[in-house]
Amino acid sequence: MKRDKVFERLAAHALARKEENQQQSLQRRNQVVDLFGIEHKSQGDSAHPATFYISITPDLIYLERFEFKIIISPFAMPIGGRGATGMASIAVTESANGTHTVNPNPHNHTLDAGVTLVSSSVQNVRLKIAGIDMTDAFKKQYPNNWIDGEGVFPNEGFENFDVLKAVEHLWDWQRGVVLSPGYKKVELFATGTFNATLVNYLKYSHTNR
Known about the structure:
By secondary structure, this protein is α+β, with helices and mostly antiparallel strands. It has a domain at 32-79 and 114-207: Jelly Rolls. Helices cover 22% and strands 42% of the residues. It is built from four helices and 13 strands. The strands form four sheets. Strands 1, 3, 10, 11 and 13 form a five-stranded antiparallel sheet that branches. A four-stranded antiparallel sheet has the order 2-12-8-9. Strand 8 and strand 9 form a beta hairpin. The relative contact order is 0.31.
């Protein structure tokens, strides 16, 4: 009887060691990538969407987090609003032999350099990921905070547009396209001319090579 208990304990210990080794081996093979607040900038207008690209490894095992914010901000132009050439008095005279002279020569012009902010304007915003229209799914998350002008959307807090929740409202084949590995193209369509930033939050597990 005692011998049977000894064998049972040895077998249980061996099984526990085997499971522990398997878990350690799995942890060595897998790795987690956590990207927080990565910014992608683009510009768009009524004829051309602002386009961003998010890369997801082909070694993907599963996504833990896939979220982003959209920031609509003014354009920064590299010349001040009053940028202009200064006044200069120039006289052109013709000599007796038909040649012309400029006085004063050389002469200078002045330019007031600076930065001017030009407001962005956006209406009728739609968002696509890998060609799949995600607009209605994102609007369901924040119906009162949709993109409608300059600002941070959905808000300046910790809330983001959540792709993993949004795909629950899609067809299975659409969900597969959005969540598959690869270079994901995100397009922001709108009426107007606008400067846009996508702030990405991405966490996923992948095979460690």
